[in-house]
Amino acid sequence: MKYFMYPSILLLAFLCGNAYATDYVKMYDKIPTKAEMIADLMPPVPRGIGTTSISTSPCSASTFTPITVGITIQFQLNSSQVTQKTREFVDLLGDALSADELRDCDFEIEGHTDISGSWSHNKLLSKNRAKAVTRYLINHHSISPTRLKAIGYGEKRLLSGIDSRSAKQRRVQVKNVGRFR
Fold first, then answer.
1. Residue 8 clears pLDDT 70, i.e. is over it
2. Nearest 5 degrees, angle CA 49-CA 51-CA 56?
3. What does 32-60 look like in DSSP terms, one character per residue?
4. Of 123, 124, 151, 158, which one has the greatest count of Cβ atoms within 10 A?
5. Poorest-confidence range of 100-114, 145-159, 165-179?
6. Contact at 8 Å (CB) between 170 and 113?
7. pTM for the predicted model, two decimal places
8. Quick check: 125 and 117 in contact, CB under 8 A?
């Protein structure tokens, strides 16, 4: 598994105080198990919350830190259609998000593109990719729409160390944001 940090976001955060700067993206090289994905999306249990205490979700903790997992939901060039080939990952994601361990967490579904096309086209395309995955999760895995938010970043957050025109850039990532506030 590889970890990527967005260098441009670090610079922007340094200049503007952006909270996203400390986010890391855990990218899978192969299809993970459901248990691995749940563990990677599960926040640490805050101190004071134990098995014998009142049931409080770690996703509701005031000290929650967002967790981002990069999954290989790749798209064809200039397409936002979830293909048969990518459904395996989307179904795995749906199974993980439906698990009891993550039922109290909300998620941003982030769409990304490579640098092909104009900025405005890529922004819209990435949003449509995130919406396609979100719709699939709602329709095929009965995930509540209130737990999901589709966001399109276009080419703004390219994976470092990978060619900016690579198919790996045309992806969707999932971010556990705790609870939408």
1. no
2. 45
3. PPHHHHHHHHSPPPPTT--TTS----GGG
4. 158
5. 165-179
6. yes
7. 0.77
8. yes
CA-nearest of 69, 72, 73, 75 to 114 is 75
pLDDT value for 148: 97
Q: Are strands 2-4 and 148-152 parallel, antiparallel or unpaired?
A: unpaired
| 70, 111 Cβ separation under 8 angstroms | no
Neighbouring C-beta atoms of residue 151, cutoff 10 Å: 16
Residue-range domain boundaries for the chain: 2-43+59-170
Convert the pLDDT of each residue in 81-96 to its tens digit: 888 888 888 999 999 9
Q: Looking at this protein, which amino acid is placed at residue 73?
A: I
Task: Give the rounded percent of residues in the chain with a pLDDT score beyond 70.
Answer: 79
